[in-house]
């Protein structure tokens, strides 16, 4: 009994610590900006007390941005952990395999064609559809037991195709101002977001998260191998479809309001595994919390970094994420006994 409860108790402790960290970062996100507010002022404004100006700043300007950082970071971390559990590959992530880029292409396409504006529910619908297509194509092309090299090549191909298609749409756009706005949106940002954006993205993010988290027991069985999982009653084909649908819903909804924010889904699971172990079922919730914490911290950082223009949060996460990704590749090469020829 003690040996079983040990890992679960540790995972619960780490999860609680991450939840506290996320709460503190959320308060920090509400406090940081052109008008600096104290944590006490933030709490009072949230409760409806204090000055009217402070309440407007916290409730109407900063709260939607903070909610989106929580939700988007959480679904990216959860999607990364789910894809790594499904493919049994530590380098799996939504951004690596082209889901955000494809979702961005779907959103940009209907904006450029004038079929919807940035506040229309058609935007997340188009983003989700293209994210679903990209993940499905990845699994269809690479196969269930794909090697790391094959997964990376397939993901790079999908990402490149989606990026080229997005560039083509922008190039053919008749409105140069729309192209410029799309280009800045693609960099990934939570600036100037309202509760309209929260209502656009949150239902899809929550639905995707519920689908992914509902398969935690199946991920644990799958870690023993597909044949063993099937002998335990796991329908692997159904599991793949659920993960595809959950990733497409969550990532598509996130990208539709924030643009492309990369590497959160890759980094978050690796941050929590050394603390709670490699059980894919226990990694899901901590990864979601770690993803939320990472995006909240990055969004706070872009407001604190002195610059003449606003730094996009997607740029900052990429700057941090690329070296981490290279480190993971080197670590995997060493684990496989590879070397420089």
UniProtKB/TrEMBL annotation:
GO terms for biological process: siderophore-iron import into cell. Belongs to the binding-protein-dependent transport system permease family. FecCD subfamily. Coiled coil: none annotated. It is found in: Cell membrane. It is a multi-pass membrane protein. The keyword tRNA-binding does not apply. It comes from the Bacteria. Keywords: Cell membrane, Membrane, Transmembrane, Transmembrane helix, Transport. Gene3D superfamilies: ABC transporter involved in vitamin B12 uptake, BtuC. The chain crosses the membrane at residues 67-87, 96-115, 121-141, 148-174, 194-213, 241-268, 288-306, 313-330. GO terms for cellular component: plasma membrane. The keyword Membrane applies. Pfam families: FecCD (PF01032). This is Iron complex transport system permease protein. GO terms for molecular function: transmembrane transporter activity. InterPro entries: ABC_BtuC-like (IPR037294), ABC_transptr_permease_BtuC (IPR000522).
